[in-house]
Amino acid sequence: MITGGTETSSNSVEFAMAEIIKNPEIKKKVRQELDLVVGKNRIVEEVDIHRLPYLKAVMKETLRLHPALPLLVPHRPSKTNPTKWENPLKFDPGRFLGSKKWDFAGTDLNYLPFGSGRRICPGTAMGERMILYSLATLLHSFDWRMPDDSDKMDVTERFGIVLRKKVPLIALPSPRLHSEELYE
Ligand code: HEM
Fold first, then answer.
1. In Å, how far are 82, 120, 125, 154, 171 from 19, measured between CA atoms?
2. How high does pLDDT run on average in the chain?
3. Distance 17 CA to ligand 1 centre (A)
4. Which ligand 1 atom lies nearest to the CA of residue 112?
5. Residue 138's closest CA among 6, 11, 34, 22?
6. ipTM attached to this prediction
């Protein structure tokens, strides 16, 4: 229960951060949304997270490409299947925007990050909140870059019951909000 609830969420945040830092265009869009909704004169609050549709799409795409519990049978075949997903190995949050909106209800067999039916994850709402709040805070308060300024981010997966990044993410933050007091 503890592993199920914490590692799934923290590993998903790590994969999402890696994908965002790796993709400058995506990072830019995430920031634009945060600056519009939250601004730079205060920090993110919990109420903000439901007003960030692009960040939510980033989270959904992270859970598609790097499912936290990868051993569920439908995950593997589905995520790499070009008949189910266009350009399946590309990290593209845009696929979760617009008309076709996959959710976490477990009714579409191609997208089951929290399982389905009687065994569906009872921590879905909490996991979603933890991921969104962590990502929003990290990306709103800080600018992140690779230590050597390279754009070579390794997002290789290491399998286990819970999916991990093979190489742990190391990134350097620098403050980006207007007032130092917001960091106290
Ligand atoms: C990113 C976050 C999370 C993801 C992706 C996730 C995903 C899943 C998946 C795929 C299952 C298996 C469903 C099945 O057996 O078919 C599951 C089960 C479970 N999850 Fe989560 N989970 C997350 C967060 C959490 C949190 C925050 C909690 C608790 C606070 C939690 C508690 C559980 C429990 C207790 C089960 C077992 C349910 C059962 O077998 O009846 N999970 N989760």
1. 21, 26, 23, 9, 12
2. 89
3. 21
4. 10
5. 34
6. 0.97
